[in-house]
Design goal:
- It is a single chain.
- The protein is mainly beta and 478 residues long.
- The protein has three domains: 3-25 and 333-476, no CATH class; 33-199, Jelly Rolls (Sandwich), CATH 2.60.120.1440; 204-327.
- It is built from five helices and 37 strands.
- The strands form five sheets. It has a 17-stranded mixed sheet that branches.
- Helix 1 (3-16) packs antiparallel against helix 5.
- The protein starts with a helix and ends with a strand.
């Protein structure tokens, strides 16, 4: 893991060499949307550039396109907290995205294919959120709804299903339908909107319910979350201590439990049901100290038309971070950072094709990088190095002193995967009015070090997770 220090050294030296240039403005999470790649391969097109593998933590703005392949899933989080889950096979374009003078949001999404699920914050004033498809426009003021664009008998048809609130669906050919929660409407291309929506057909659902004094987050087999951290899972609803998911996918579901006060015998229950019929009930009981992060999981079967089934919750497992809760299989999250890649390599050699993950905490990365800086012979004096991690990537910041100048230096690092390989790149390297060729040279140097760092993980990488204070590289051993 010494490459962590090398990456930081390259960054600080490169930025420090050009600190005499004043800093300029950049795209940031305050005025853009953040892309989270949850599963499989997802591509992004930035402006007029060609499609390229999307990276976790990348920023999107007006004109950018996201497409998920048949095994890909992603979430777009807008600066107001609204989210758009892009499911396998979907393609969406951020047609326009602006922050209003009053601090509100105006966003228009163009969806040409596949399914998305939007969870929109309550809007006010001149804010708006709308999804345009080849046949219609769905406009909301704060609600949750699914948009499904599919080709049926050669005709592109849009179906809107409302989970909460009300969606106004206006057909390009004329007419508007108000679609309240629990109903849906379909609009073929070239057809007017129907006079009234129809009820959604009943489907399977999961309902989680916790006892008081602890919170929890539900994580589905794709890595999508629902609970105290927000809503990414299509069809999920959070109501106090209850989380409900409609039309759940089969596979292994994980839960992360936390407590703000000590909990003795805290209980989490799960009902799997179809309509009024409860197919199974599972219960999980644990004790929680303040600050504990506890993970449990269970496998859920959802046969077509048949009863839901579950293996029941696994035993409680204490983890060190949210990243550890999302990780699969053998998790390498403790011990010296420098030893983690070696331990993973030894495990991979003895256990081929097994799920595994490496988890790195921001504080650990900061310490490792600081140790390397202290032993390096740099042309500038660097102090106060801090690495922070959140959903839009890894941030590096420090103070650099050159002669009488003492100025800040910073940059972001984002990551993703393509064909099982880990990709890491810089984002938001700001050199002010420095010539473009200078910025390109600096970026190339940093990216070269990041590529070397990424190559240390002997994993077929499925996804990368940037979370509050940690980074997880998740996949299977070769």
């Amino acid at each position: 893991m010494k490459r962590v220090g090398i990456v930081v050294l390259v960054l600080v030296v490169a930025v420090g060499a050009f600190l005499f240039f004043p800093r300029g403005g950049n795209l940031s999470i305050a005025n853009a949307a953040t892309l989270t790649v949850l599963h499989g391969n997802v591509d992004a097109q930035k402006g007029s550039a060609a499609f390229a593998p999307a990276l976790d933590g990348d920023l999107l703005t007006s004109g950018d396109v996201v497409r998920a392949n048949e095994a890909g899933n992603a979430v777009v989080t807008f600066f107001d907290g609204s989210t758009l889950t892009v499911q396998s096979g979907a393609q969406v374009k951020v047609a326009s995205l602006t922050r209003t003078g009053s601090g509100g949001i105006q966003v228009t999404i163009e969806q040409t294919l596949g399914k998305t699920w939007a969870s929109v914050q309550k809007l006010s004033g001149d804010s708006k959120f709308e999804v345009k498809t080849p046949s219609s426009t769905a406009a909301v003021r704060g609600t949750a709804f699914e948009t499904d664009v599919e080709i049926v008998n050669g005709v592109t048809t849009t179906t809107i299903k409302t989970d909460e609130g009300t969606v106004l669906v206006t057909a390009d050919a004329g007419g508007t339908t108000s679609v309240p929660a629990g109903s849906q409407v379909s609009v073929p291309q070239g057809a007017q909107a129907p006079a009234n929506p129809v009820p959604q057909p009943p489907g399977p659902r999961l309902r989680f319910l916790s006892s008081a004094n602890f919170g929890y987050t539900v994580i589905d087999p794709r890595g999508m979350q629902c609970g105290s951290v927000g809503r990414q899972i299509p069809g999920c609803d959070v109501n106090g201590a209850s989380v409900t998911v409609v039309d759940p996918i089969p596979g292994t579901w994980s839960l992360l439990l936390t407590a703000a006060a000590p909990v003795q015998g805290g209980t989490l229950s799960l009902d799997g049901a179809r309509g009024s019929t409860i197919d199974f009930t599972s219960k999980f009981t644990t004790n929680l100290a303040v600050g504990d992060l506890v993970r449990t999981s269970l496998t859920i079967t959802v046969p077509a038309g048949g009863p839901l089934a579950s293996t029941g919750f696994t035993a409680a497992e204490l983890v060190t971070s949210v990243c550890g809760a999302e990780a699969k299989g053998k998790v390498f999250s403790s011990g010296p950072v420098a030893d983690r890649s070696n331990l993973l390599a030894a495990y991979a050699k003895a256990n081929p094709k097994q799920p595994a993950a490496v988890v790195l905490a921001a504080a650990e990365l900061t310490q490792a990088a600081t140790d390397n800086l202290n032993s390096a012979n740099l042309p500038v004096t660097v102090s106060g190095l801090i690495i922070t991690i959140d959903r839009d990537g890894m941030k590096l910041s420090a103070q650099a002193t050159i002669g009488p100048l003492n100025v800040p230096a910073s940059a972001n690092i984002i990551a993703g995967t393509t064909n099982g390989k880990l990709i890491m790149k810089t984002r938001d390297l700001d050199l002010g009015p420095a010539p473009s060729q200078v910025k390109d040279q600096v970026t190339a140097s940093i990216d070269q070090s990041l590529t070397s760092f990424a190559g240390q993980f002997p994993l077929v990488v499925d996804r990368v997770a940037f979370r509050g204070g940690c980074l997880a590289v998740i996949g299977t051993t070769p």
